[in-house]
C-alpha cells in the first residue's frame, strides 16, 4: 500500500469502484480502501435491475437516464462481461387508485423524456405472461435493463487498476486526520495514507466514516430482503415492480404502524431473472439498524405479494434468501459532492436502492468534480449541505 | 403459533435419545425430521453394536431404533415427519416444510441433531448413474430392499466401507474389490477379516482413475498411489462393475447451525468445520444445542450419549431438573462418553473433542 495518494476512496461497492475507474481514466491514481471484499456489502446483496421508471421525475430520473446511456457501452469500455442486457421493465398496477397515481407519475416521467407508457392487462400480459387476472394493467418502458452488480464492481476495479489505481481489500479505515479544517490523511488497519481528498463511498456504513471527521450524516441503513429461486427457463421477461414498491420507496411514513405485515415491512415487488435463470424476488424496506438477518415473516410476506401478482411463480422452488442494507436518506436522493467546512471531504453515498442504476453517473460526477471542479450536469441540489441542520457538525459547519 | 419447550431437529440416534431423555424430565418435546420414517441411520444398521453393555453392545442398530421410538411414544414426544427444517430465525423460530406447505414452531430450546452427509469423490465418470454413497447403497438394501447392482467396487476401507461390503454380499451382490487410498485398512480388523474370508480382494494404496460407461457404470479403472498420493504409471487395473460405492468419510451437516449464527472451529479429524459447544452441548448461541455427528463425525453410540447430554442440559435450563439432579445424570453420561473415546480408534476423537471444548473456553 502506497504511503500517499491524490485521492482515497472509502468503499469497494458499485459507487466506490466506479469513482476509482472514472478518476483513473482522467489520470488520477486513487487508492480505494475496502474493509472486506469488492461488492461484499449492499452491492453483493441486491437485485440486478437498472430501472429508470422507479425514479422520481426530476434530478433523480435525470441522473438515472444519464447513467443508462453510459451503461450501453460500459462492458466494451471496461472489457469485461457485466451481464448487461436491456430487457424492459414494468410496474404492475392493482387498482384504480394506483392507476391514478401511476398515470401522473408516467406523465411527469414522459415530460423529462423517458420512453414509458401505460398498458392495460391484456397488453401487459402479452409482454409478461403469468400475471394475475385481477390486475388493472401496468406501465412499460423498453429502456430498463439488467446488470450483474458483483461483476460490475470487478469490472470497474480491474479497469481502474489497469490505469494505475490501487485497490486495497481487507483494509478498514480506522480514522481520518483533519487539520485546520482540511483532510490530511487516512489511517487504516494497515497504515497511514497522506491525502488531500477522501471520498466517502461506504454506502450504509457512510455514517461511521462521516463520524471520523465530526459529521453526523442523515444516512440510515434500510434492510432489503430478497429471495432467490432455482434456475428455470425464461419466465420473467422484464424487470417487474409493483406500484406499491414506489409507495414504499418514497413514503416510508405511510408504512409505519400498519397491522398488515406486508405494509409494515415495506414489501414491494421487484422481480427479475438472472443470466443463469434464477429469479430474484424482492423486497422489503425496513429500519432495523445494521441487522442483516432474514426473517421468516418478511420472506412469507414477499412471497405472498409476489405470487398474488404473478401466480406463475407458485410452482418454482426457493433455494435461498439474503438481506442487504440500503443507504437511506430522508429525501430519497444521494449525497454527492464536497462537504462544506472540511476541505477535501467528498460524499458519494445515500443512493438507497438506486446504487446500481446510478453507479456509472456517480463515478463520472465525482471524478469531474475533482478533476475539473465542475460537473457535466448540475447536481448542486444533491450537495451534502442540504442536510446542514441534520448533520450537527458544530465544529465546522 | 405452534410452540414447544424443546425442538429437536433430526430423528436419528442423537435426536431420539435427546428427546427421550428430555421428555423423562417432564419437558414438552417436539422432534422434526425431513424423512418419512424416523430413526436416521439406525434402521439400516442390521449389524450388532460394539462396546460395553451400557452401550448396548451386541444389540443390532435397528432394534435400538425401535426401542427409542417406543420410548418417544410412551413419553408423549411429538415426532413430526416429512418436516424439512429450512431455517432458524430470531427468537428460536423454526421454519419447516411439510407436505409442500410452510410451517413454523417456536421453541424455548433447540437441539440440532442433523447428523452428517457422505463425502463425494471427483474422478472422470463420477456422475454416472451407479456411482453412489456406500450409505445410500446400505439404505437401498436394508431399508428399501433393493439391490443397487450386482458387481460392486467399494471405495474406502473404514468401517462403513467394510460393513456395507459385507451387507451387500449378504443381499446377493458380488463385491469385486475394495480399494483404499491409504497404505492400510482404516476400519476394525474384525470387519476386514470377515470380508477377506468371503474372498473380497482389498487393494490398499489404490484409487479410482476413471469409471467407464456411456449411460451407466460399466467398468472401473484403478491405479496405485505412491507415498505422496500420486498415481504410479502403468499400475492401472480394469474391473468389470456396474456399481461404485463411495465410503470416503462423512461431513457434519451444519447448514442450520451456520444459518442460526453458531460460531465454528475447524477440526479435520471431526470432519472439518464444526460448531463450537460447551460441556453441556450448548453452542455459542444461548438455547441452541448440538448433538451427534453435527458436532463432529463419530458413531451412533457417542451420538446417543451426546443426545442424552443435550436433553438433560435443556431440561435443567428450563427448570425441569435441579442442578443436583442434572449433575448426577450428566456425570454418568460424561463417563460413558469418555469410555467410548478410548482405544486405538477412540483416542484421536478424544483429543479432537478436547480441542472443540478448548475453542469454547478461548471464546469465553
Largest sheet of chain B: 7 strands, mixed
Distance between the termini of chain B: 35 Å
CATH topology of the largest domain in chain A: FAD/NAD(P)-binding domain
Please, how many helices of chain B?
9
Rg estimate of chain B, integer Å: 21 Å
CATH architectural category of the largest domain in chain B: 3-Layer(bba) Sandwich
Low-confidence stretches of chain A: none
CATH topology of the largest domain in chain B: FAD/NAD(P)-binding domain
State the fourth-level CATH superfamily of the largest domain in chain B. Answer: FAD/NAD(P)-binding domain
**How confident overall, as mean pLDDT of chain B?**
94
CATH class designation of the largest domain in chain B: Alpha Beta
Integer tally of domains of chain A = 2
- By oligomeric state, this entry counts as heterodimer
- Overall SS class of chain B: alpha/beta
